[in-house]
Amino acid sequence: MTASATAVRAPARRAARLGRLLWPWTRTLLALAILAVLVQRLGTAAFLDGLRLVTVPAVAAGLGIGLLTTVCSVLRWRLVARRLGLPLPLGTALADYYRALFLNAVLPAGVLGDAERALRHGRSSGDLGRSVRAVVLERAGGQAVLVVAGAAALLAEPSPAVALLGGLSPSAVTAAALLSAGALLAWAAWLPRRRPAGGAVAAGLAAAVADARRGLLGRDAWPGVLGLSAAALLGHVALFLVAARTAGVAAPVGTLLPLILPTLLVMALPVNVGGWGPREAFAATAFGAAGLGAEQGLTTAVVYGVLAFAASLPGAVVLLARCVPPPVCGRAFQERTTARTSANDSTRLPTAASPFAALASEGLPMTPDSVYAAMPRVSRCLRSSLTRSAVS
């Protein structure tokens, strides 16, 4: 590479690095701005009611429903991982998934728990790149079912979306959606051409496509992914119904269902803080458009947020349990463990491959704050590992 080419690319790299640093804070500020607008328009009473109305039976129902939805998600993750040739014990997967749910709920970005889950699985399986793709494909399978269900609900009852968009014409919304889809397809077609066919980007895309065909779209994979995703979605809908009844909404299920599914879909927007922000705004707009009252919709969304957080609390138990050092074992057990670990060193990632392992070596506890502080290491680790896996 010539000096002039390096000089030309240096500003672009600095801009990309600055964008990666600013985007987490930007989306957090956007979510807080949405909540501030809701407080300014609807007052604080709806928020306070959502906290006050939560009862012990509602929390117990949230924990039970959360267990069912988490088990479905764990089985979906195991299915995708095993189709990709990665081992994933059920107990380990359940603990890691709960831990990821809790970290997603308490950390701003909303996906840091999934990143940590992928890194942990990659370290144990010895293939970080494929472990990351397994997590991405698992989440993509669930989101695809949610998108279809949410789109069907919006087609059946478009008034919430129309109210949220300020009365825009359906043709304008359709044109915007088509333009966005076209831009996404053009970007996907252009990206592999940025580098030669043997480059890391092209190889990484080829590996991702191959894993998607095998782990998500394969004949022995997609029926299970579809069924488990639908079951998990039913669990989320049931939790929202519990929140609505707890908030005092007496409308029938047939009236609430077209409002709940799009609200769950809006939660996927990357401008939330632990799920808070767009969910409350859309729920208030949807309930208001349906004649149930914007304040009632906001209160329902707040109750749902509290119950969803309660459903993730087993992840806090897992987090604390892993912070406690294990008891001192006998010398023979330690020697067997050391020998087994040494025998598998050639197929496992080194300890330094996991940025979270550095927390223990530095004497830092594995807490949400320390995990969030370690996320720059996570980003560098993911990029370097994916590049190595693509090149190899």
UniProtKB/TrEMBL annotation:
Keywords: Cell membrane, Membrane, Transmembrane, Transmembrane helix. GO terms for cellular component: plasma membrane. It is found in: Cell membrane. InterPro entries: L-PG_synthase/AglD (IPR022791). The chain crosses the membrane at residues 21-39, 51-77, 136-156, 168-190, 197-216, 222-242, 249-269, 301-321. It is a multi-pass membrane protein. PANTHER family: BLL5419 PROTEIN. This is Uncharacterized membrane protein YbhN, UPF0104 family. It comes from Thermostaphylospora chromogena.
